[in-house]
Amino acid sequence: MAARLLPAARFIIKGSLAGAAVYVAYDQGLLGSGAEGAEALKKAQTVLPPAIKEWTSYVGWELPPTPKIDFSPSDSWNKGVQTVMSALSVAPTRACEYTMEGWKYMKDLVK
């Protein structure tokens, strides 16, 4: 009986942790727009360093100072999306050009 309950309990615990992680991410605005994500990142950058410093002083560890990051996720995301869309927009033209070059190469080989 206990052998059957252990896998079920593990499944319930893992599912609960996954659900809690999704809820926290949604509640903090990480699953929203890019602006909401950038705001959540700024909020985390202001809240986490004091919390980590307090925790490390409690444990007795000494960590190096956190680096200052001037990074905009929304700008990087938009740049990535623009790059991918640009590549996809020219893909049919490039495929046609490469096909023509391939046929020309094959014709030259057959001659």
UniProtKB/TrEMBL annotation:
Record-given protein name: MICOS complex subunit MIC13
Chief location of this protein within or outside the cell: mitochondrion
Top-level division of the source organism's lineage: Eukaryota
Subunit structure, as described in the record: Component of the mitochondrial contact site and cristae organizing system (MICOS) complex.
Membership in a protein family: Belongs to the MICOS complex subunit Mic13 family.
Cellular location(s): Mitochondrion inner membrane
Role: Component of the MICOS complex, a large protein complex of the mitochondrial inner membrane that plays crucial roles in the maintenance of crista junctions, inner membrane architecture, and formation of contact sites to the outer membrane.
Taxonomic source organism: Aythya fuligula
Assigned GO CC terms: MICOS complex; mitochondrial crista junction
